Amino acid sequence: MKIKDIVNRNIVTLTNCEHEPIHIPGSIQPHGFLIGLNADWKIDFCTANIAEFIDIQHTEVLGKDLTAVFGSKSQEQILEYLNEDKIQNVFPLEINLLEKQFQLSIHKSFDIYVLEAEPKFPDREKLADVYTQTIQFVTQMNNTSSLKDLCALVAQGTREITGYDRVMIYRFDEQYNGEVIAENCREDLEPFLGLHYPHTDIPPQARELYIKNQLRLIVDIDYKPVPIFTIDDNREDKNLDLSLSILRSTSPIHVQYLKNMGVGATLTISLIHQDKLWGLIACHHYSKKNISPEIRLAAKLQGQFITSQIDIRQSNDENVNARKTSLALELLSGLELPLTEDSLETIIKSPQLLNICNASGVSVLVKDKIYKNGLTPSNEQIISLIESINKKTTDKTFSTNKLRDHFPEMEECSDFAGIIYHSLDSANHIIWYRPETISEINWGGDPEKAIVKDSNGLHPRNSFNIWKQIIKNQSNIWKQYEINAATQYAHTLHNHLMMIMLSEEEEKYRTQSEILRETNAELENINWISTHDLQEPLRKIQLITSKMLTELDVIPLESISSSLVRVSKSAARMRVLLEDILKFTRIKYTRDALQEVDLNQILEITLAEMKENIAEKNAVIESENLPEVHAIGFLMRQLFSNIIQNSLKYASQERTPVIKITASKEAELVGHSNKIYCHWVNFSDNGIGFEQQYAETIFKVFTRLHNQDEYGGSGVGLALCKKIMQTVGGNIYATGKLGVGTDIKIYFPCNPEDSLI
């Protein structure tokens, strides 16, 4: 039988150091030995140092059954241990192997059971002692309110339990740079509290292992790795995943890093929060040191105390400021404001508008007018910033504490590094500002030199002297409760603006009612004049015809002809006058005739009437459910017909005409005219389109963008559409892209019964 070691001898370089396979080193630390059992309970892996603990060589063990080496009783104990509830297995299995006492840690690595044996500790702490220490700690923990105080208590408690020279609570930021947020150490040691360490100190694969295995022990930094041997079965990639191992050998780079710090032994406990590595409890000793399983468990519990309290303690830490923010939001939302634009002056001057998110300045853009308070950019910078945000994102909200990272072109706004932006609608916006905060960070060594390459190879940095870094172009980070408060008030302000618009519309209607009363008074005069004017041709017709009837026998033929011409002229005058009056009265009664109209029925009728035209163009009409609107049925049929006919007329010769008809689901404030409309319908085609600069021109009567020879028509169709929408109190807009297509969007007024809030 041939055997081989599985030591990983791959050379670590600058290009692969972040992918160093630290989970399969092929070696262990020498304070215990390891064997690996396959599914048949044969020993497939064994460390070279087994003979240092029991009287047997690794060459004698490999390939044999576990019972052949250690006896059937040992196998029975291991099976019983594996079958026990996992909660019972928080401590290693105490077992006698060839007349010597060991503590056996067992885990499964794929199809291999990994058994790690350490000599039984002669001075083991009793479980009762660990329990007593834990109860005392919980009592003290309940007396702390902040996360910082809790971490300081854990650092102190962990050092008391473990006896390490230094215990640090190490917290990661978003990029996994670490900061020592709590520390307890020997009085003669230089404190590390407040120091920052770069993310390269703990590379990604190490962070992954910290999540899988939450306790990591290095007993002696100067240890010599012990190779793991296995049966040579001609598999080149044969190895053993030691992610969950207690004895796993450590990366040479990490060992050198600790040596450079002067550390002799370490214990590291992972702090996992929301399935992510939140931080570490890092214990350093300046000589070699091992601790019993009971102490390891007690130390691990310290970490679980922190992670179980993170959300609660962070909430407590922010609670005071959050209450201030909530109070400011309550006061601001409770202001009694008139429904006029003058109320914006009151809002912008209110100190609560800044206090709700602890901003230094705020600006509100409404109808192209900017209201400002506090430290803010210039009006030109504010407009430029809004344009930049709208180009970058379609979201209605945006926040950052590093403005120039997102918008390098905003260099002129360098004094304002943090913003919270909300789009109230397409034309109205609110922005809160924070100034640049220049800060100083103390690093434990230059973070740019975390890994050093010299003539001797790749090494971690040697110097851990404090390295100061000045941070610019950023503000204090916006807290989530500040962002939430800003969002709440932006919604309140949006509603207030809608109410102002409604009030203005109501005032317009009131004014129009006055005009209508005046118009009706004029109409009475017009009707009287019109009636008087009708009597005059009627009298002429009556006189002429009466004379003709009485003198029929004596009147010459020429006179009869002349009289008939005069009658015809009078009748024609009457017809023109009647038509004009009819047109006038029709417009008058059109306003009064607004009623509920189902646009689905209008579309169905229109498509039926245009069936031949649609078939001739081979066009495809796609529509969704349309709303009921406040309008006039026959005008809507004319409107739909004109719009669809326009799309068919200007269809592209290169593709099948497709007209998509979509509709709104709820009321909205339209930025084009700052009016509130309850419904809109959009006609989108894939025709020849037009340049957007002609968006207003196409609605002017007799206006054409193309030659008569190219496309027929009088140029009245869209002008009539606009007139119809004005008649029903709505509006119409066009959006085009040359060679792509056209969107015609029509807006309908609200019914009195419609709820907008």
TrEMBL record:
Question: What positions does the domain Histidine kinase occupy?
Answer: 529-752
Q: What is its EC number?
A: 2.7.13.3
EC class name: transferase
What domain of life is recorded for the organism?
Bacteria
Limits of the Phytochrome chromophore attachment site domain: 146-304
**Protein family membership:** In the N-terminal section; belongs to the phytochrome family.
**What is the protein's name according to its record?**
histidine kinase
Species whose genome carries this gene: Flavobacterium panici
